[in-house]
Input
Amino acid sequence: MKKNIKTLYTATAVATLLMAAKTQTAQAATSDAETKTNSETTTATGATTTTPAQVTKESAQADVNKAQEVVNDQQAEANGAQKAVDTANQKVKDAQAKVDSTKATLDEATEAKQEATQENIDKTKSDISQAESDVTSKQNEASQAESNVNTKQSAVTQAQSDVNTSKAKVDQATADVNAKQASVDNAQKVLDGTDAEQIRKNADDAQKAVDSDKANVQVKTTDATNKATAVSEAQKAVDTAQTAAQTAKTNADTTSQKLAEAQSAVNDAQTKVNSINDQINSVNRIEMPKGYVNAKDNIAELGKQGLAMNKYKEDEKAKQEKIAAVADSRGVVGLLRLTDEQQKEITLWTAGILNDIRKQLGLSNRIVVTNKSLEFAKYIADNSTIAGIEHDDKALQDVNKAVLQARIQAESIGLGVGGSDITMNDLQEAVYDLMLQMLFDDAYSNWGHAMQISGMEFHGVKDEYFGLGVRQKDNIIGFETFYPEDPAKADEGGRLTIPSVDTTELQAELTTAQSDLNTKSNALTSAKSANDEAQSALTTANNNLATAQTNLTNAQKAKTQADSDLETAKTQLTTDEAKLASAQEAVQALSADLATKQANLQSAKDALEESKKNLASAESI
Output
């Protein structure tokens, strides 16, 4: 039994101007295909006109009092050591200031949260890493400076002790000379028989001086003991502060590391969110107004809604793909030459949008793309000889013989895009805008294009074989749909996978990724808070250490002064005791005979000379 065969040329056409603002008119091309089988003839016709479409394309001691010349040299050394201490103390302050400044940089870096371009993310990572390195470096400098302070302070203390020892020896020798001189003077007066009353008075005064000196030595001894205790306590405080500072540094290092890890996790999560968003934002689909499939009188209003609802999304990846072009008859380069792969790419891209339209409208038919459907569309595009927006009936008929026989066949055409610097993104945009016009601004052709593009024309046919071609002659874009006489032949090589434009799964992935980003952002906030607290504690601990070190330095200075005062008091006691002994000898010598008095004078002179030698020896050390 023979089949009824119906060949249909829905010779529809639509134009869009992407390269110039001008209006072209497309004429309807109707081809009647009459096939008589079993005495039955079916003729189908389609009407076309065109309308222009415009598309616009769119940043951080006091000096010790001078004594004898020998003492001066050691005092200068002590002063030099103290200056080194002061310098080291200043380095501690400077280093701590750098730590504080660097921490501020770290705080600023970690707040660079999620403007979320990859450039900002990478810069934030670099800033945080550098800031953390600077913090560690400056803290090490501070610790080294503190160690230098301790070393230099020890040098000052030792130098001052040496000064005190030398000064005490000189003071003792001087006191002895003075006492011996007083003995000589008293012996001379005894021998001369003068100032007897004064000699007795001198002895009384000397006794009083000694008694006062002893009391003063006791006071100075107590003070020196207290000052030594203060130094010991200050040293303990320094040791405790150093331990606390080290603990704080360890804790700060830990929280800083955790902050860096939390920041890295946020960066990764943000990158994922951005990636999914980029995928969603590069998916182009056409949203159909509700009621479109059954629209009658209000189809024009729904068309306005459809135009307002849809806009092409730039495809950054497609912008990198160039399409070759050759010169037209005027010598102007602008005629596109798609490779077979590019024709397949644009066809599959378009098919994904068309299938989504059919799904929205509740239609059962779906677009199918095969190697044969691509060849079908390419043949028509390559063999069309008619210029402008006109259907080439000959090419439409010849393709049935050259490629495969179509049972049902339809074509919608429109002006595409041309030029010397065209990308796949440009072509996609041109195709997208053509589909918008055909679906939503097709009243002039009695919505004939809309019927084909939406799938309503093939309603009831399960598979619509589809191919898209670009004419060699004038860049006219042709949407070719058909149902083959022999589906098996049309399916040779298998059906190609058409990408889905449904972003439901991507939206679900985005929701999950955004939730993960929120969780990691909260963890980052907590990590930053913990790090801020730890860094503040470190600053406080370092300040406490600096204060303890200053207190120790002051305590050591006070102890040095107390020791010096005690030595002075002891020297004064020694001096006054010598004077008392001399005065008492003078009193006793008043009753001695002449020979004894003369012997006493000579003995006193000899003792004086010996004490002078001792003084000279002390001063030469």
User: Anything to note?
Assistant: Residues 1-64 have pLDDT under 50 and may be disordered. The longest strand covers residues 406-415.
